[in-house]
Amino acid sequence: MDIERKQAELIEQYVNQAESLTGPSLAGLIVEATSHPSLFAFSEILSVPNLSKIEGTQYSRYLDMLRLFAHGTWSDYKRNADSLPALVPDQVRKIKQLSVLTLAETNKVLPYDQLMQELDVSNVRELEDFLINECMYSGIVRGKLDQLRRCFEVRNTLSFNAV
């Protein structure tokens, strides 16, 4: 199954669930969706009218977290961490993957130094492992690591328009 079709199925699953849940159950669904290893698109889930019911409640932080996953980056999370729920390791990995995807959509050459700063990675080996294992193997970006020029050359990115 290709990644776009898998995205569409997961989105449909979470949208359907979100339509019938309330308060704490919606917060739990948001954590589950943002932790899911194969889900990278959150705008359609965010647009479920039922989610507006948690705006202004004790669960509104989870709605803010879903907005972050739909439109933000790891840097955005760090800037707003005090007002958002703490992320579990799967969510940290996911928001960092989404950060790479965001950068790769607008730049075809990503310098290692920029990526290391954006992702809070301290060395090139850790960065290359993340790019290979968490970004390329997952199918969200395709490209080539250029160790000589210390950059990641992006060939293409996961397209959410096909979803």
UniProtKB/TrEMBL annotation:
InterPro entries: COPS7/eIF3m, PCI_dom. Keywords: Signalosome. The keyword Ribonucleoprotein does not apply. It comes from Acorus gramineus (Dwarf sweet flag). This is COP9 signalosome complex subunit 7. Belongs to the CSN7/EIF3M family. CSN7 subfamily. Pfam families: CSN7_HB_subdom (PF22061), PCI (PF01399). PANTHER family: COP9 SIGNALOSOME COMPLEX SUBUNIT 7, COP9 SIGNALOSOME COMPLEX SUBUNIT 7/DENDRITIC CELL PROTEIN GA17. The keyword Chaperone does not apply. Residues 1-159 form the PCI domain. It comes from the Eukaryota. The lineage of its organism: Eukaryota, Viridiplantae, Streptophyta, Embryophyta, Tracheophyta. GO terms for cellular component: COP9 signalosome.
